[in-house]
Write a structure and sequence with these properties.
MetI-like fold, about 270 residues, mainly alpha, 13 helices
């Protein structure tokens, strides 16, 4: 877990410091297009002579931003829906979970593509579209935890003292379900990054000339011909994307082991 956290921290720091460590990612130099890695251009250049190191770092910033923003949307919607469904029960629970069942029955990728096409391309629409379909599992997890907690002694005591449903949820129940939510949120970030890369690869994600790791991979694939293979255009963005996702998944596994409610004992009042 420590190595994964260190790797992820290094990726975030290098990506964040990209504007100070590399050239302008949009600066073109047609005289130096498709140059391989060299001392002057560490990762080479693309088909329009743009520095691949600068493009890769810019793409990492965009991919991480989309992953984090989509996860924030997913957690906010999932916790709200799951908490209301689990605490209210009855018709409200059946209605909300019926919506979840219907949405989960739809092909995930197809649904995201339809949303992106419907709301348009762009960073904001992209993470809203991914986050809008990533909350379903979070809602199920929160609903199950809330149903188990709503009849506990500390909840009954708060209810007897006159606390309303919103206060009980905010002060007594939701804090006790944060462990599983944090773990699933950590798993949602790499999932959102994969979805962004896939959509950008299909041309439905980040709009050019803005770069993401998915658009860089798509541009690298387009440059492949039977007579020429500019391997650096695919290798470096692909390795960075794979390394980041692996670090996030490993970190999520470590968080799961530490925050597993079965290992944490009884919930705190």
């Amino acid at each position: 877990m420590r190595s994964a956290a260190a790797t992820l921290l290094l990726v975030v720091l290098v990506a964040a410091l990209g504007p100070f460590l590399s050239r302008d990612p949009d600066e073109q130099d047609l005289e130096r297009k498709l140059e391989g890695p060299s001392r002057d251009r560490l990762l080479g250049t693309d088909a329009t002579g743009r520095d691949l190191l600068a493009r890769t770092l810019a793409g990492a910033r965009v991919s991480l931003a989309v992953g984090l923003a989509a996860t924030a949307v997913s957690v906010a919607v999932g916790v709200a829906v799951g908490a209301v469904a689990g605490y209210a029960g009855g018709r409200a629970e059946r209605l909300l979970m019926g919506v979840v069942d219907v949405l989960q029955g739809l092909p995930y990728v197809v649904f995201v593509i339809v949303l992106v096409v419907a709301v348009g391309r762009g960073m904001l629409n992209l993470f809203l579209a991914i986050g809008a379909v990533s909350w379903l599992t979070t809602a199920r997890i929160v609903r199950a935890e809330v149903k188990a907690l709503r009849s506990r002694e500390f909840v009954e005591a708060a209810r007897a003292l006159g606390a309303g449903p919103l206060r009980i949820l905010a002060r007594h129940i939701v804090p006790n379900v944060l462990g599983p939510v944090i773990v699933y949120a950590a798993l949602t970030v790499p999932m959102a990054m994969r979805q962004e890369a896939f959509l950008s690869f299909l041309g439905l994600g980040v709009e050019p000339p803005q770069a993401s790791l998915g658009t860089l991979l798509a541009e690298g694939i387009e440059s492949l011909t039977p007579l020429r293979a500019d391997w650096w255009l695919i290798a470096f963005p692909g390795v960075l994307l794979a390394t980041t996702i692996l670090a996030l998944n490993t970190l999520a596994d470590g968080l799961r082991d530490r925050l597993d409610p079965r290992a944490a004992g009884r919930a705190r009042p």
